[in-house]
Amino acid sequence: MTALSHFDACRRRWLRWLLPTVLALRGLGAEPHTVVLEGGTYFDPSAVMRPIGAIVIERDRIKAILPPGVEAVVPPGAVIIDARGRFIIPGLIDGHVHLVHILRSLGLSAEDLFPLFLAHGVTTVRDTGDEITAQQGLAAYAEAHPEYAPRVFMCSPLVDGNPAYHPFVSWPMTDPANVPAFVDRMSAAGVRTFKIYVGTSRKVGQALVREAQRRDKWVTAHLAWGYTAQEAVADGINSLEHIGSLYEFVLPAGTPHWPAPAERAAFPPGELAALERKVLEGKAAVDLDSPAVRNLIDSIVRQRVMIDPTLVVYRNWMLLRDLELVQQHPDLKQLPARLREGWQHSARAQPLDPATRVLRQRQFDLMKALTLKLARSGVELMAGSDTPVQFCPPGGALQQELQLLNDAGLSPAEVLLAATRNNARALGQSKELGSIEVGKLADLVVLDADPLAAINNTRRIYRVIHAGRVLEPAALLRRVPVN
After folding, report:
1. Residues 6+ apart with CB under 8 A from 287
2. Which of 230, 271, 442, 448 is most buried per CB count within 10 Å?
3. In Å, what is the CA distance from 344 to each residue of 326, 327, 348?
């Protein structure tokens, strides 16, 4: 090796170390320019890990994916990332978040927590029901600050009956004739997803599906008391949120239905506790091979409805929040104290009966089994966290959801597809996001270990690239006000 070539090799090694470090010290990522990921293996659109020579990013888009043995021509000033021995996946998408009302109730703002998403590899989020003006402000903030905020896609307020279950984030709708004007108004505001909530009637649901899809929008639902899953699927809804939106409608005959809030208030405490146990007993005895389950899954497959299970919110809040692994999860340490304390206050105010834990655990196990049954039947699954519902931390909860989907029996590749390709489709962003391809937006996560070998390797993040900016997880976490 000549002295000049030796100097050039040393210079390149020095730049690989120095430039990302300087970038972090400058507050992460000025305007994006050329970024070159040298070497490594990437999760390609066919869902396999494939070795590459380099990925070249110009500004906020992927310019080239070079095969092994082909070196990129690196322009002056380019940021070089040594990806040799590392694994590159598309930026993760959280398909179910709420950025406004829960945080506002605790005196917090999503702007303070946005870096948590990016630090966990979540480069895009879909709000699934919030006050619209606040969502617009957050989406604008995120667009202006991609160096520490994920992309934000907006959803309508919760379309519900009257009275609404969550009045501050709902739009009570009882007359189908009012749906077209509502859809026009929300579409003009930038909404991409419309959400049907627990008290909506079928007539309103049908009108919303029809009018929103006519405008090329997505319609999803969280179902419980009125509109059934069977009806919504038959009416052509695009997706259902929460595995419970199916589970509630395949219970054994004779299982009492948990009443709506207005009905619940009429029960004496003792009778309500007895009713709750009967409901839990029925839910712990669901037969996943019953005709009701088979017929519902068949219709979901036939209608190509996507399902967003959000298993993490069932474990961490609704069913098993009394488990030590939930209460002491390491992800909680990264949160502002006010958020942690607010969640603990909620848990103390709504204690779970230790005597029902076996029933609750059985229900959760059946929900995981139903999730696997959907996947094996050909249903496209999404990945969502319902953050910041109690004990579902921003960013970390999606990582927990990936692990739960894998625990349910999905392969790591299937899990990654749910959190990338499938979620991008639900957002209408398949041409821009969800896979690593030339021309798409440069949202990537560089990992130190293979996620197809173990899904929890998605936590071993070396760098996050968002809109062409190179971000360091530790620097992002330092932006979050923990105290």
Report:
1. 252, 293
2. 442
3. 11, 9, 6
Series of mean pLDDT values for 10-residue runs along the chain (483 residues) = 42 39 39 88 97 97 95 88 97 98 94 97 98 98 97 98 93 98 98 97 98 98 94 98 97 87 81 90 97 98 98 98 96 96 95 96 98 98 98 98 98 98 98 98 98 98 97 97 85
DSSP sequence for 235-288: TT-SEEESTHHHHTTSPPTTPPPPPPHHHHTTS-HHHHHHHHHHHHHHHTT--T
Query: Domain-by-domain residue ranges, the chain?
Result: 3-90+439-477, 92-426
pLDDT at position 75 is 86
Going from the C-alpha of 64 to that of each of 47, 52, 58, 97, 126, the distances in angstroms are 19, 11, 9, 32, 28
CATH class of 92-426: alpha beta
Assess whether the previous peptide bond of 256 is cis (omega < 30° from 0): no
Q: What is the pLDDT of residue 2?
A: 46
Asked if domains 3-90+439-477 and 92-426 share a fold, the reply is: no
Strand partners, 219: 194
Residues in the chain: 483
Q: Is the Cβ–Cβ distance between 445 and 464 less than 8 Å? A: yes
DSSP one-letter code for 67:
P
Q: How far is CA 461 from CA 100, 449, 456, in A?
A: 28, 9, 11
Residue 309 in contact with residue 239, Cβ under 8 Å?
A: no
For residues 227 and 200, the answer to whether their CB atoms sit within 8 Å is yes
Instruction: Name the CATH superfamily for 3-90+439-477.
Output: Urease, subunit C, domain 1 (2.30.40.10)
Q: Would you call 118 exposed, middle or buried from its count of C-beta atoms within 10 A (0-12, 13-18, 19+)? A: buried
